[in-house]
């Protein structure tokens, strides 16, 4: 699959899985300052917990959804992707991301977010507050018990309305139970309250949108610091675009790693009626996440606003038990994909019908096919961020020619990955197929890392050797 490029908000980082080109952002105040999703911690349904791609709608509750999922089972995010069709909403997402990173604690974060200065009473209330259900991110509900707590916070703080207006481009007025904000939004709620904790609809004359203090990443100082660590250490891609057009390509590009997909309430009938392509996306998400006899097999876990009533297939939805087995092919490519890096990867094969069946497009991310005959030509001198030699000996290449090719490939990349049939595996017992890993090491030295991909009768059908760094000249 070729490298994907998007408009969005570039984040300076070492990884270049996607290319993000900076998009122009107007300043009309046409976005939501906060969200009101209700989120339950359902992370025990994830089949795999390592290298998870967290992909989702870039609303402010994205950070809460990430925190409740990653915080429960030691889930290790491998990549963070946030998307929105509204450039102002995407800029606000990145603003919140930076505020979290730059704030040393939860109270400082709230002060900087709301442009308030808390008095001693409010600080004490916030420090001592414990929500009764910390595994649920509280949002907009018909009724909750937090109004009095909210009132006491606003009676013990000062709000900088001019600073707020200058930073956010939004008109906001401090009241005794939150900021009353006026804007123009795609969700038709143009007047709403921004609150610190309360989401009780019956206690407000307009919908409250809340920071949800006491839950999610604001449940405790430990939760806040854990999210800061994730945001600091994990590659992040804020992408501009229509979810109906983006999501499938984002899923397919990351098909060989588990995918957590946060869709908020975007798949509900209200938004589908306003934008019918979202209905087709809803069907496609179910198809990709549930199909078992057709590639790709995607470990896809859909996370939504819990007030949603739209049923999604139990194999995909976070409402039911989630167990996603992978075939030998998918498990092997999962292990190979972890070794690839950069935006210009090359997969060298000597089985022409693979290329024909895939219509010339490699299944691996940021990777293009190259037939062995072309790559082995004396005039091939193009460098690549990664090169994969895909079972060449196992499909008939002479060993001496293979070893010469390895040396040539190492001169053309700083990340050479070799996937080869393991001659010592029970899958090939007595067949004389493949190559012993020891032979590779004797000829080319020890790889930087070695892994094994499973087979029908063994866990080491294929070995995966990775050589990092420039080869000796």
Verbal overview:
By secondary structure, this protein is of the alpha/beta class. The chain folds into two domains: 5-117 and 126-140 and 219-304, no CATH class; 329-468, 3-Layer(aba) Sandwich (Rossmann fold), CATH 3.40.50. Helices cover 30% and strands 22% of the residues. It is built from 15 helices and 21 strands. It has helices spanning 62-70, 87-102, 106-114, 120-128, 147-154, 161-168, 221-233, 243-253, 269-274, 277-290, 328-337, 352-357, 372-375, 399-410, 437-444, and strands at 5-8, 19-22, 39-40, 50-57, 76-84, 116-118, 136-137, 157-159, 171-175, 178-182, 191-195, 208-210, 236-240, 259-264, 300-304, 345-349, 367-371, 386-390, 415-421, 449-453, 462-468. The strands form six sheets. The chain has a six-stranded mixed sheet, with helices on both faces. The longest helix is centred in the first third of the chain and has 16 residues, at 87-102.
Labels describing this entry:
21 strands; Rossmann fold; five-stranded parallel β-sheet; elongated
How many E-type strands? 21
List low-confidence stretches.
none
Gyration radius over CA: 25 Å
| Distinct helical segment count | 15
Helix content: 25-40%
Q: How large is the share of residues in beta strands?
A: 15-25%
**The number of domains:** 2
Structural class: alpha/beta
Shape: elongated
Strand order of the largest sheet: 17-16-18-19-21-20
Largest sheet: 6 strands, mixed
Mean pLDDT, to the nearest integer, reads: 92
Q: Multimeric state of these chains?
A: single chain
Distance between the termini: 31 Å
């Amino acid at each position: 699959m070729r490298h994907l490029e998007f408009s969005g908000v570039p984040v300076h980082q070492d990884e270049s899985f996607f290319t993000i080109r900076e998009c122009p952002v107007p300043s009309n105040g046409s976005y939501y300052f906060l969200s009101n999703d209700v989120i339950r911690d359902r992370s025990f349904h994830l089949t795999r917990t390592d290298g998870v791609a967290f992909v989702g709608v870039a609303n402010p509750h994205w950070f809460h959804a990430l925190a409740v999922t990653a915080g429960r089972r030691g889930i290790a995010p491998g990549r963070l992707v946030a998307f929105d069709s509204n450039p102002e909403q995407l800029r606000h997402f990145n603003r919140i991301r930076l505020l979290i990173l730059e704030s040393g604690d939860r109270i400082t974060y709230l002060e900087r977010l709301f442009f308030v200065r808390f008095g001693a009473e409010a600080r004490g209330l916030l420090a001592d507050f414990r929500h009764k259900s910390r595994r649920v991110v509280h949002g907009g509900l018909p009724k909750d018990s937090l109004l009095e707590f909210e009132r006491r916070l606003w009676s013990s703080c000062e709000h900088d309305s001019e600073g707020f207006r200058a930073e956010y481009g939004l008109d906001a007025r401090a009241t005794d139970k939150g900021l009353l904000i006026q804007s123009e939004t795609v969700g038709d709620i143009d007047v709403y309250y921004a609150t610190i904790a309360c989401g009780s609809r019956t206690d407000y004359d307009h919908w409250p949108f809340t920071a949800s203090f006491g839950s999610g990443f604001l449940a405790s100082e430990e939760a806040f610091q854990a999210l800061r660590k994730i945001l600091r250490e994990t590659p992040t891609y804020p992408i501009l675009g229509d979810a109906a057009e983006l999501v499938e390509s984002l899923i397919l590009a990351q098909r060989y790693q588990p995918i957590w997909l946060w869709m908020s309430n975007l798949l509900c009938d209200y938004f589908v009626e306003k934008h019918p392509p979202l209905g087709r996306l809803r069907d496609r998400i179910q198809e990709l996440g549930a199909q078992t006899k057709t590639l790709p097999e995607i470990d896809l876990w859909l996370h939504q606003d819990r007030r949603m009533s739209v049923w999604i297939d139990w194999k995909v939805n976070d409402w039911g038990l989630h167990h996603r087995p992978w075939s030998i092919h998918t498990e092997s490519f999962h292990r190979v994909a972890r070794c690839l890096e950069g935006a210009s990867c090359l997969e060298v094969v000597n089985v022409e019908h693979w290329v024909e069946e895939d219509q010339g497009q490699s299944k691996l991310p940021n990777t293009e096919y190259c037939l062995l005959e072309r790559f082995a030509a004396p005039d091939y001198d193009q460098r690549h961020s990664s090169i994969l030699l895909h079972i060449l000996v196992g499909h008939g290449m002479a060993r001496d020619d293979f070893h010469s090719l390895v040396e040539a490939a190492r001169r053309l990349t700083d990340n050479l990955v070799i996937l080869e049939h393991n001659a010592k595996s029970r899958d090939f017992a007595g067949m004389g197929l493949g190559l012993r890993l020891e032979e590779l090491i004797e000829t080319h030295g020890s790889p930087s890392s070695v892994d094994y991909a499973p087979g029908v009768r063994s866990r080491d059908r294929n070995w995966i050797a990775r050589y990092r760094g420039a080869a000796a000249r």
